[in-house]
């Protein structure tokens, strides 16, 4: 049984990457490409080349650029990209061109519907790929190169690339109106990727600075059965001794927390933060630890008599 679980643990990421690649490629071909929408990054350049040449070479162009960037990245960053990223990149781009060659018909001619559903499907596919520990394009690798060499934040690099590609698309073939729809598609895509990576279970961290920690603790525990942690501190302005209670709850429990705090101590200072990943008792279990190879220190020295 343990061996079977180990095999499934090894194989499942590859299955997930395959499913994610199918979803992303299908989303591009069924919704995005037929209505002349475009995306930033390497895929966007592939879309531009398809319209300029009239050939189904979205994936081929993306692969060529990504391969070049990956070669440079491997020399600068080392062999840290892994087989999963290579597999995901090749599979998704080959599927895009294969679907284009098969001339699969678009699902809708309504560009707004295409932007919403295309963004949702492509975002789900890419989110599954990223969640499985893989990447799909050269833009990410290029961002990592600039971060290592120049310490330029990856987010800034990716934004510049996206703006450049969208500007190039406007100049090459896409009317400004379709660029606006493309931005809707990109926004939904990014939001869905975030949902897949961070999970659909939305939680919030509550921090309460109060003079009545014990009363609040008992009220919260009895009402919500939710544990919390108490920190002792000092007010920076008053110098008075204060206490901070902190806990994590789901969003549906936040109104009850506010009601309790209002009843017990209206002078409390309350901070509510969105959080995406919570592990431990009452929430998700921590991910399993990957098996590590024996370190050099554990290998016996054959030269020792």
Structure description:
The protein has 2 domains: 2-198, no CATH class; 203-275, Alpha-Beta Plaits (2-Layer Sandwich). Helices cover 60% and strands 10% of the residues. The protein has helices at 2-32, 41-53, 58-77, 82-101, 111-131, 138-150, 154-172, 176-198, 213-224, 254-264, and strands at residues 203-210, 229-234, 241-250, 269-275. The protein has a 4-stranded antiparallel sheet with strand order 2-3-1-4, with helices on one face. α1 (2-32) packs antiparallel against α5 (111-131) and α9 packs antiparallel against α10. The longest helix has 31 residues, at 2-32.
Low-confidence runs: 292-297, 299-305
Total individual domains: 2
Gyration radius (Cα, Å) is 25 Å
Major sheet strand order: 2-3-1-4
Secondary-structure blueprint:
Layout: H1 2-32, H2 41-53, H3 58-77, H4 82-101, H5 111-131, H6 138-150, H7 154-172, H8 176-198, E1 203-210, H9 213-224, E2 229-234, E3 241-250, H10 254-264, E4 269-275
Antiparallel strand pairs: 1-3, 1-4, 2-3
List keywords for this structure.
single chain; 305 residues; alpha+beta; Alpha-Beta Plaits; 2 domains; four-stranded antiparallel β-sheet; 4 strands; 60% helix; 10% strand; elongated
Quick take:
Helix content is 60%, strand content 10%. It is an alpha+beta fold and 305 residues long. It has 2 domains: 2-198, no CATH class; 203-275, 2-Layer Sandwich (Alpha-Beta Plaits).
